[in-house]
UniProtKB/TrEMBL annotation:
InterPro entries to which the protein is assigned, alphabetical: Acyl-CoA_Oxase/DH_mid-dom, Acyl-CoA_Oxase/DH_mid-dom_sf, AcylCo_DH-like_C, AcylCo_DH/oxidase_C, AcylCoA_DH/ox_N, AcylCoA_DH/ox_N_sf, AcylCoA_DH/oxidase_NM_dom_sf
Coiled-coil segments on the chain, per record: none
Acyl-CoA oxidase/dehydrogenase middle domain span: 127-219
Domain Acyl-CoA dehydrogenase/oxidase N-terminal per the UniProt entry, residue ranges: 18-123
Similarity-based family: Belongs to the acyl-CoA dehydrogenase family.
Keyword Acetylation: no
Record's protein name: Acyl-CoA dehydrogenase family protein
Organism: Amycolatopsis carbonis
Cofactor: FAD
Domain of life: Bacteria
Keyword annotations of the record: FAD, Flavoprotein, Oxidoreductase
Amino acid sequence: MRKGTDLQHLWRDHVDERLALEAREFTREHVAPVADALDRDDRYPLNLVRLTADRGWNSMTLDPRYGGEGRPMTELLAVLEELSVASAILGISLITIFQSQRCIELYGEESLKERYLPRYAGGLPASFALTEDGHGSDIRTLDTKAHRTDKGWVLNGEKAFITSGAAAELFVVLAETDVGVSTFAVTKDTPGVSSYQGHEAETFGLRNGPHVNLVLEDVEVPADHLIGTEGRGLKQVMVTLANSRTLAAGISLGIARAAFEGALKYVDTRSAFGTKVLDFQGIQWYFAELAAQIDATRLLTYEAARDLDAGRDIARSSSSAKLLAASLATKVASTAVQVCGAHGTRETQPFGRYLRDAKAYEVAGGSAEVLKNTVAKSLVKAVRVEDR
Ligand SMILES: Cc1cc2nc3c(=O)[nH]c(=O)nc-3n(C[C@H](O)[C@H](O)[C@H](O)COP(=O)(O)OP(=O)(O)OC[C@H]3O[C@@H](n4cnc5c(N)ncnc54)[C@H](O)[C@@H]3O)c2cc1C
């Protein structure tokens, strides 16, 4: 007899079933009870982030030399998917932790890795700060500047829309130097670092504490806080984002599953014209089509994570996974509201939250258009190599 939510048997486990069950039980006990309040209050889930760290999930894929678990990406994906069935807010809180950690792990100097990476196992909240008011999709040039000094680097500028920024103690920041954009590790307590929640900081979805503007005023960091090679920042963030897009797709799939299951349960209780709403074939077809699409998108997403674990190029597969998962989550959440009728629009119900979180993730972490550009680029490259 399988444990878990009543409807769990709908979805195949793509990793060790025990891990999925553990994440599911954690979600039911700790996440589901606070999910609506986190969204309503636009609050960073610090307690939950500490609890997930206790389970080893905040540094699950990190090399054990730095206090991590050294587990495959597919397992982290499974955990984030399960957590996000209850709260995409917790999902994105863990994704910014992953992004900053992975960028340092892949490109940082040994001294930098030893200094910061072990702190993730203790629940270090962290952010990945690329965007500025004038630079979103296009971050090839930036208004945030860094210049070299005798002792290291000095950064000046302002980043915008920074998820988890309300609580972050460490920021991976993209800034422009003389030779192009570069990434830097900056701690919250460095003199000259401040943040504020601008009057436009609140978003309607993925609300884990209003997104902050991160202000850097003559911020001095040591030389090894330049992550990797000067001028290679764009490549580094593209690789880091390609890695994290598999997880982003998992978060969207969590939202899709939650909306699907919530609506399916409701229409099986609701009656109209002397029958259960679920017995109308027109309603069943919605669910049949969405279930097929969720299954297919999950397969693609786990395949992208497996590609990553196998060291294969994932630019295309992770972009395709996020592209499909994000738009599918919006479609499922929207359909869930539709089939639930007025009940689906109630503020006391989570369907509005699902819809808002799903839509926000069609923009955050790589918009649909930018993801299509990435997929298209790999297709063009493939056909031109073939032609040679
Ligand atoms: C909820 C949320 C959380 C976020 N968290 C973070 C964070 O933690 N860190 C961070 O750095 N940023 C964060 N962002 C910012 C996010 O990364 C940007 O919103 C995103 O990169 C798009 O940039 P933009 O909003 O400036 O849109 P723009 O770049 O102004 O684009 C506007 C429209 O044009 C389209 N477009 C742009 N370029 C092209 C192109 N070449 N071809 C076709 N269409 C194009 C876009 O897809 C979009 O539809 C977050 C955003 C949201 C909504």
